[in-house]
Specification:
Helix content: under 10%
InterPro entries: Intradiol_dOase_C, Intradiol_dOase_core, Intradiol_RC_Dioxygenase, Protocat_dOase_a
Keywords: Dioxygenase, Oxidoreductase
Family: Belongs to the intradiol ring-cleavage dioxygenase family.
Protein name: Protocatechuate 3,4-dioxygenase subunit alpha
Structural class: mainly beta
Oligomer: single chain
Low-confidence stretches: 12-18
Mean pLDDT: 84
CATH class: Mainly Beta
Shape: globular
Number of strands: 11
Distance between the termini: 35 Å
Length: about 200
């Protein structure tokens, strides 16, 4: 009799192999319009844009970024069908790869606060070569209510400021530094395991 060992293990190294395509299921990474949570011509549309850098400050040309967010009213979407873009159903989820100069971009809506007094943010997940597990961070929306009282930003002290995106017209700019002096703050969640150094 064998026993199944269900001990959690670190995630496998990610890529770079994001060109996966399964013709039988019409699924591939990245998928068509994965970076458009709303159509680019939508009146509510803003762009979330940034560059992903390694520890030496070099852009990473083959990272994959996912975002998860509330809609403009602070509602957390719960519809199925994120892989099928429907201009009438906001799913709050998107996926994009960085280009050859390390830049990612999404067309989305500016999220609202999920509760009174809470600062609105976009949850970002980073996949890249050399990472043993995905990384989680947040891009807080600048100039919004709740930023000054946000418990997460306050707990991080000065480092909390690197979680706030900058505004450039209808663009939210949020660069991601995987290591180094400007390293982005990353979060660990229960159940996530990482190898010990």
């Amino acid at each position: 009799m064998t026993t199944n060992d269900l001990t959690p293990t670190p995630g496998q190294t990610i890529g770079p192999f994001f060109g996966y395509f399964n013709a039988a299921e019409s699924v591939h990474l990245p998928f068509e319009n994965g970076d458009n949570l709303v159509p680019p011509g939508d009146a509510r549309a803003v762009q979330l844009i940034g560059t992903v850098y390694d520890g030496e400050g070099n852009p990473i040309p083959d990272a994959m970024i996912e975002i998860w967010q509330a809609d403009e009213h602070g509602n957390i979407p719960n519809q199925d069908g994120s892989l099928i873009r429907d201009p009438f159903a906001f799913t709050g989820w998107g996926r994009a790869t960085t280009d050859n100069v390390g830049t990612y971009r999404f067309t989305t809506v500016e999220p609202g606060a999920t509760d009174d007094g809470k600062a609105p943010f976009i949850h970002i997940v980073v996949f890249a070569r050399g990472l043993l597990n995905k990384l989680h961070t947040r891009a807080y929306i600048p100039d919004t209510d709740g930023l000054d009282d946000d418990a997460t930003i306050a707990a991080l002290g000065e480092r909390g400021q690197n979680l706030i995106a900058t505004r450039d017209g209808k663009r939210l700019v949020f660069d991601i530094h995987l290591q180094g002096e400007q390293e982005t703050v990353f979060f660990q969640f229960p159940g996530m395991t990482y190898p010990k150094p």
